[in-house]
Design a protein that fits this description.
By secondary structure, this protein is mainly α. It has 6 helices and no strands.
Length: 135
């Protein structure tokens, strides 16, 4: 009975708790193999059903933690306030350190690309001239 959806195991449906667990474990640096084992599924099932959590999980968890620390700081937690000040200062310093590379115009990009042509389409090298002063 190939094609009958009623036969075999039912399709895996992830829960919200499992999605959160995958995000946190990925943010913690665990491998996909270890995360799949922790959730109790195969790695292909993990990739199929949790691709968003695997791709964006670390950023979401980091944002959630920053927001929690911010709320705590705004609520009067001095340690959280100091940590937020430290983080904001570090982020500002990092922004100042990393200047954006200068963008090239289209003509400059094409000129550089033309100069870097290689292989059988490269212009031939100039012949070596041999000068003999013998008489």
């Amino acid at each position: 009975m190939a094609g009958n959806k009623n036969s075999g195991r039912p399709e895996y449906v992830p829960t919200d708790d499992e999605r959160e667990k995958v995000r946190v474990l990925k943010a913690g640096g665990m491998s996909n193999e270890a995360i799949a084992e922790a959730v109790g599924i195969s790695e292909p099932t993990l990739r199929k059903h949790f691709s968003s959590e695997l791709d964006r999980g670390t950023a979401k968890v980091r944002a959630d933690l920053l927001m929690a620390r911010y709320r705590s700081a705004m609520g009067g937690n001095v340690a959280a306030q100091n940590k937020m000040i430290e983080q904001v200062s570090a982020a500002r310093a990092q922004e100042k350190r990393a200047p954006k590379p200068e963008r090239l115009g289209k003509k400059q990009e094409r000129k550089i690309a033309a100069e870097n042509v290689g292989g059988r389409f490269a212009p031939p090298t100039a012949p070596k001239l041999v000068v003999s002063n013998d008489k």
